[in-house]
Amino acid sequence: MEDFVLEHPDGLASYRVYEKGESPAGKQEIRSGEAIDVAGGPMRDTMMWRTFAQLSTIVDNNGWDQKPSSPCQELANVAMTTKLILLALLNSVEMGCKDIPLSSINA
């Protein structure tokens, strides 16, 4: 997943995971985050597995429906939306590049 790796101008590997939430004004904002900046850094798959383990621990400790599990739910929602978009693109190509509404896709 490319979104876990952000290029650093000094050549450092920057791995960042953010928690988003709603501000008092009703806008989405970053509330907290975790960052590891290292030269060379751990491999991308290592960081993904580390993040997966942290998210799994949140679910194990709090359950899926509890408030601290919201990062897990957000990532699951992003994954499902990405799947829908890819399926819509594939259907569009198969139908001569016609517009395909996401609501018509069954995942």
Description:
The N terminus is likely disordered. The radius of gyration is 17 Å and the shape is extended. Strands 1-2-3 form a three-stranded antiparallel β-sheet, covered by helices on one side. It is of the alpha+beta class. It contains two helices and three strands, in the order E-E-E-H-H.
Strand segment count: 3
Major sheet: arrangement of strands: 1-2-3
Distance between termini? 21 Å
Structural class: alpha+beta
Q: Helix share of residues?
A: 40-55%
Shape: extended
What is the makeup of the main sheet?
3 strands, antiparallel
- How confident overall, as mean pLDDT? 77
- For this structure, the quaternary state is single chain
Poorly predicted segments: 1-5
Reading the helices and strands in chain order gives: EEEHH
Computed Rg: 17 Å
Proportion of beta-strand residues = 15-25%
Task: Note the total helix count.
Answer: 2
Key phrases:
alpha+beta; 41% helix; 24% strand; disordered N terminus
Strand and helix layout:
Blueprint: E1 5-7, E2 12-22, E3 28-39, H1 44-62, H2 70-94
Antiparallel strand pairs: 1-2, 2-3
Quick structural gist:
The chain is 41% helix and 24% strand. It has 107 residues and is of the alpha+beta class.
